[in-house]
Amino acid sequence: xxxxxxxxxxxxxxxxxxxxxxxxxxxxxxxxxxxxxxxxxxxxxxxxxxxxxxxxxxxxxxxxxxxxxxxxxxxxxxxxxxxxxxxxxxxxxxxxxxxxxxxxxxxxxxxxxxxxxxxxxxxxxxxxxxxxxxxxxxxxxxxxxxxxxxxxxxxxxxxxxxxxxxxxxxxxxxxxxxxxxxxxxxxxxxxxxxxxxxxxxxxxxxxxxxxxxxxxxxxxxxxxxxxxxxxxxxxxxxxxxxxxxxxxxxxxxxxxxxxxxxxxxxxxxxxxxxxxxxxxxxxxxxxxxxxxxxxxxxxxxxxxxxxxxxxxxxxxxxxxxxxxxxxxxxxxxxxxxxxxxxxxxxxxxxxxxxxxxxxxxxxxxxxxxxxxxxxxx
Amino acid sequence: xxxxxxxxxxxxxxxxxxxxxxxxxxxxxxxxxxxxxxxxxxxxxxxxxxxxxxxxxxxxxxxxxxxxxxxxxxxxxxxxxxxxxxxxxxxxxxxxxxxxxxxxxxxxxxxxxxxxxxxxxxxxxxxxxxxxxxxxxxxxxxxxxxxxxxxxxxxxxxxxxxxxxxxxxxxxxxxxxxxxxxxxxxxxxxxxxxxxxxxxxxxxxxxxxxxxxxxxxxxxxxxxxxxxxxxxxxxxxxxxxxxxxxxxxxxxxxxxxxxxxxxxxxxxxxxxxxxxxxxxxxxxxxxxxxxxxxxxxxxxxxxxxxxxxxxxxxxxxxxxxxxxxxxxxxxxxxxxxxxxxxxxxxxxxxxxxxxxxxxxxxxxxxxxxxxxxxxxx
Lengths: 377, 377
Description:
The structure is a homodimer.
Chain A: H1 4-24, H2 30-37, H3 41-53, E1 57-59, E2 76-78, E3 83-90, E4 94-101, E5 106-113, H4 119-139, E6 143-151, E7 154-155, E8 162-165, E9 170-173, H5 175-185, E10 192-197, H6 198-208, E11 218-223, E12 227-233, E13 236-237, H7 269-272, H8 280-301, E14 305-309, H9 311-315, H10 317-334, E15 340-343, H11 350-363
Parallel strand pairs in A: 3-6, 6-10, 11-14, 14-15
Antiparallel strand pairs in A: 1-2, 3-4, 4-5, 7-8, 8-9, 11-12, 12-13
């Protein structure tokens, strides 16, 4: 016997199944969605109607010629205009906000210097950035699915609490609660609100917005002063027992090597981090060590794709090329197929776009735990 | 509307929910199982009856005094005698078979030298070992849930095909199919049959048979001629994009270090593998490098527990102590809590016991993919 709660959950699951089908196979008809999802045609018909009404989906023009007999069916696709995701990055020196379509197109972007790293001041600045964007979207009849916020720190998966963000000087800050309260005070409806680590968010952006089959496992390496990674595997972010997984910058590549910011010797960050790179000779060396680091990740995670992003990568394109060359050399020695290594699709916007992707990612996985707080849904 | 298939699946899921509750909280009454699982009392009552009949569960003597009013309820627990799991390890030099209870107690064990590494010869020898054990169990009215086989090689998760087992000289061997055919010919009913990599199996043994909450993520490090790892995370084995995750022996700890069996320089195996250890000075060095390796795994996976097993670990207890000391030193520097590092609970039997655990693990996760072949269930 099903309760009303069961039915609601089942409906959310079935809706997410259809939306995930659309992500991978744009242009399917209702009949083909039913065939591929295993849902009945009448269930698909009802849910598609809802998803059209809520601007998740849109009907494309029907093909002029069908594939033979009968009237042509209407292809469906994700609505790339009527519903958006908002992503925000709290970086050490600036605040970035992007408005992204369901298909991963960046519709608008805005960056301002961070006035102060004080949590309440950041919250005020963030709300001031959100307000005109939300008002404009509302005026144009566009629905906001939610707002994702990312920052350089360790975030608790299920509560969104920021445990520790050393470069912002934050410890145990309920930033989500602050932003939620500020939005409520301002009377702004922005959908569901989430907070996540910046590299984790960037990994989700690369994962959610690629066309076709998803790259799983996917590792996003963020190269800046610190070197961290976001890891997606088994279709979920992987953050470890206490949310501290992916600290690749503090894996040791050279026992008794140069001293690292953490006080140990020979950590990856001591070779690859921004402080280690000054001239082009340093870039080549850093690229080589980045290649060694990737080969280690390869051995441990056997990833489908490794994505390289962050400020150093944007400033020194030679870094990626050298890393690829080093990994290619290891791969030749082992005789295994080479893992794809590529630059971040969204460049320096990767974390902000990833924060927007987080909203979509969570919506499409109604059964997953760790949904952060919910605001005004 | 539910189909018969849906109902069957729902029943399997609900049965697995109850069995997993029993794993963590032995002695619960039906009423408390209902409260903790969220299932109705009548559903629990029906399913417990089935699980008692099928020897998954057993009723313990009721407590003399209840916790207050009313008649005392009957505590339930996993049936540690009426149903067993069989695990088999195909090692390079021997064949091990163990009979294990649902609670992880080793009821019998048997080890014979491997006559030949030829797959068909191994299959014949394995069947000859299984036959008297199965006959004896049948004569005593004990149900066999299934047989898990593990071996030192890369195994395809969903088909059980052995891609490559270098130390056995196997490549693309359908060992599961061979054993299945041999058992069918011999008219033996041994339940479901699975094949898995030995370190992966060992990780599952440590994961499934601990009391209370499970250690997740858990990494099992197998130290032998080769150094490999089995990784359990998000309640599942993690094997990567092509089943090659956990190759910790070929992560580089020392760029330009000593040459490794793989042709590269400075791999963990070149410091920790059996070939690198001859005297006690070597053990101390290997233990230190093992500590560095664990610190790297710590940074990447943030595991709850790291378990050390394998022949070298059994022969040189100093290895584990030195590794713990090295990790403790790193941990002091970082100020983070130290990850638990311990010896394998089942010593050299860890892979065989883990192969038995694999049978239980798969049964308790009816929704997971990659169920290998099914035999005679």
